[in-house]
């Protein structure tokens, strides 16, 4: 026996989806109702990626819940065909409009799309969209944005945080990060393009480099990264660092940088050392200890995670104080060829490369120039720190606001 199938009636809209055809409800009935007595929502044509109207949101709610005579449909791809919008637009709209409905029986709650909630959320966000800058209007603001991006190498998010901090917004205007990206893409910030943004406005996958790094023998890795306390992985407590060396890819250039970043605050320390040897790395860490003093150093440097490079093979020399000969920190070692285990350090090294590209001869770079890079990184507003800076968070974590430490002061 053949299963009965729904016949398409005259006026039904045919929507192709791959090799299938979806029979939709009539879309152009009069507003009073259709043959089943339902009130019909008229759907206007929209280009892909356009904003949802109130009527569309209400219709999306009916489709998602399978109510008011609409067949249940939750797949963004299919809904995109119905509403003539991209899958991403549908997914974003559903995500923004989800609310929890409390039930009187098991399972006691249900997550559903709510058109009214989505509409209120959209209208609220429209308040912060702000007008597009026009010639002669908001000139000072546009110039400041251009300056922060071109001269300070700030990201759009960091620009907004700096404008908030300095109170530089014109009266009645405050835009969001997405709007600033739109301004830049539209050419409304003179002299600034997406190419001028950090990472050119998009995240890039890290590619392996051709050069091979020498790794120390397993015997040096006295403590594997797997032995680190859970609080280190979850960044629950400040005082745990990641370290590495940044060097030139050109042959014959010996001088390099010892870089250290605190995992919770993202505080960065950069020290220029003569070469990538265990002796030079130890001297670099000794110099940092002398800047803080042995007692404060032990408090701030609870642990350091390095890779298995031969320059970090002097475990005892790095762990023991140059001032008191007692233990000053604990070392952990990442697995060979697993740079992602020190992701924060690798990311910060990438920022340093924006100022000192590969092939730079570090012998020509003065200590003051390196210090300026360090200061820039530590006073840069970070989204992951809710707009605060690494230096501010670092001082708060260790209660250093009233202490004068030369290494932390701007040069």
What does this structure look like?
The protein is α/β, with parallel strands linked by helices and 411 residues long. Helices cover 34% and strands 11% of the residues. The chain contains 14 helices and nine strands. The protein has a five-stranded mixed beta sheet with strand order 7-6-5-8-9, with helices on both faces. Strands 1-2 form a two-stranded antiparallel sheet. The longest helix is centred in the last third of the chain and has 15 residues, at 278-292. The radius of gyration is 29 Å and the shape is globular. Mean pLDDT is 80; it is low at 1-49, 203-212 and 217-221.
Key phrases:
single chain, 411 residues, alpha/beta, Nucleotidyltransferase, domain 5, 3 domains, 5-stranded mixed sheet, 34% helix, 11% strand, disordered N terminus
Layout of helices and strands:
Elements: E1 14-17, E2 20-23, H1 54-65, H2 76-83, H3 87-96, E3 98-102, E4 109-113, H4 115-126, H5 139-150, H6 156-166, H7 177-185, H8 230-233, E5 240-247, E6 256-262, E7 268-273, H9 278-292, H10 294-300, E8 303-306, H11 315-319, E9 330-333, H12 343-355, H13 367-378, H14 390-398
Helix pairs in contact: 1-4, 2-3, 9-10
